[in-house]
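Researcher: Next sequence.
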Amino acid sequence: MKRILISLVALLMLMPGSIIARQNWMKRVGILRPVHPWHNARVAYFGDSITDPNNTGSKKKYWGFLQDYLDITPYVYGISGREWNDIPRQTAQLKAEHGNDVDAILIFCGTNDYNDHIPLGHWYEENDTMVYAATGQPKTLQHRRQRKLIECDSTFRGRINKAMHLLKTTYPQKQIVLLTPLHRGYFNAGDCNLQPDEHICNAIGLFIDDYVNCIREAGSIWSVPVIDLYQLSGLLPLAQGSITYHDNNDLLHPNDTGHERLARTLIYQLLTLPCQLVQ
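Model: Next structure:
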């Protein structure tokens, strides 16, 4: 009996800490699941290779873990290499396949716009106009400045405006959440797809955080929540200790461990947001 107890203790000591930690995590999620506002939700996922189920960087994506943890039904439209100018197409595909039978939309996009050297552009154009206005006095015709959103495919901000206008028109009563791009490490998929790490600017002198800041700004302009995974995810492939979340030959796409960490972060961030806005 003593030998058996010693063997059991030895097995526990040898058991990877990650297994025990994951068991404890699943218990906590089990308690949280029934009261989580995104439990049993139908969620569309737009984006690029981080979302694409066919990307080989991981066997399971963040949305797959969310499906396990919160019983979310995923509608996945992300495709490797896509940029913000593809979000209108993904929106149209969601509408064609599911109509209004979706509770929320998560958009995880922008890193390829950086890699493709897309200019940032501007949110608005401004012009002079004449309007009637009054503040405690009879109205008068006054000269004012007027701004108008720029919607185009040639700039990053213009692409976001174009996509968000369509989304707000197509799904005005649905929860739409923006996710910032992640930190980027070195990626080599051959002579025609070689991407330096984020310490190197793109061909027009911009860094990845310039594009991340645009996503942050878009939340204010379009009145949608932004989950800042660039800051909150903990994935930093340029730090030696964080490589556990990526494979050594791909420091751009998270591996399964990285996607699980993304999902855990999202669980708590989404806990603060309503999902099914219209009953």
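Model: The radius of gyration is 23 Å. DSSP finds nine helices and eleven strands in the chain.
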